[in-house]
Design brief:
Thrombin, subunit H, Pdz3 Domain, 4 domains, 7-stranded antiparallel sheet, 6-stranded antiparallel beta barrel, 12 helices, 27 strands, globular, disordered N terminus
Length: 478
Amino acid sequence: MKRIAGIFFIALLGGAVSLGLYKAFEKRQYFRNSPAAGIPIKQVSFNPSAAFNQPDFEAAAAISIHAVVHIKSEFQKKSMVYDDFFEFFNFGGRPQPREYTTPYSAMGSGVIVSQDGYIVTNNHVVQEATAVTVTMNDKRVFQATIVATDPSTDLALIKIEEQALPFLTYGNSDEVRIGEWVLAVGNPFNLTSTVTAGIVSAKARNINILGSQGAIESFIQTDAAVNSGNSGGALVNTRGELIGINAAIASGTGYYTGYSFAIPVNIVKKVVADFMKFGKIQRAYLGVYYREIDDHFAKEKGFSDLRGIYVDDVIEGGSAAIGGVKAGDVIIRIDNTPVNGKAELTELVAQRNPGDRVTVIVNRDGKEYELILTMQSEDSKELAEKSNKIIIHGATFEALSAAEKAKLNVDYGFKITSLANGKLKNAGISAGFILLSVDRKPLRTTRDLNETLTNRQGGVLIEGLYPNGLRAYYGIGL
């Protein structure tokens, strides 16, 4: 009986081999006679474990959780800054205010960035706080002092008095790639640090959450789950390196719905270094008025390429003007990094210090030029803007400062600082009036102002507002 079974098994095996050889020969003949004949076929060896080869986050999580802390901030009055971005930020809009009783407290997270107790978090977590308490992942509690805060980047630096602390090392956010796996680490509930995983969904996102012209927004977008209280937590790569500080989620309910945003670490480490050394940011500026290039604008200007940032005008005496940038140039790259939008431009400039030399590639009349710029400080920007006075029809105009733009919630405009007899005064306009547009054309640059109010004939519609926020419209004959 065993012999019969053995013969049957051998026959069955031989049949299977024969059938396999026939199918292989038949498949070979098919490819030989198919339209794709001659195209090399890539041979793929099947690895049974490959389908289950998922990224391993254990090492990155182990490194990160002890360097992320819980932060409790106490306030004596309602803070206009802490409208918890995670709880109240609606995608595409500004944070919605919430009424608090006094005193009150707020929670967030922070990341230890040095073994001697420096912790980076979000500005909106600690600004205007009267007391800041830090709880470590091992439950130790410390009182922290605020070293410095900066609303324009939504970053703050605090410090606790302790040594030999676990801390995260900086990665390089410029090297982060869309689709890359990341971990979001926070301590929102004062329990222990929590870890969630996701991928990088986008880079250089400007979501207009910081609300001022001088704000630096170039967020890393990720789908790692982040919820209320994770403000100031860490975004790390699979090597456990810090690549961002979590700042906001896109939600109308305050709960995670698929989008979260982190401040790139290359901005973070520059801001932290300035805080430690100077107590405030040493901000460089480029000195240009610019706009993004879309399809409509490209057709209007006759551009065949949508890459780059169009320079509307340059500020006299600014970094760009001294370095040779001209109105009408298209900035393509800064230090070999492509520039295609406002967020990318502001991020690259924010990483620089006054005195740094940068290489700027511009497209001018179809030809590329390499220019070397020495970055100037934000203080020189304010001086340059204030010295750039324009007198038209008896009115003296000055470009709005970054602080004025933030206060009025506008991105452009020119303020009348003094007003003599002329067409503008005769129309009823008063000193202090801020021109925003003429015949619906926004006044973004000094060129816009000159072109719309000089060498014109006939009536024009002037739109603007006064410092108290009152909007006004004037029809003027030129």
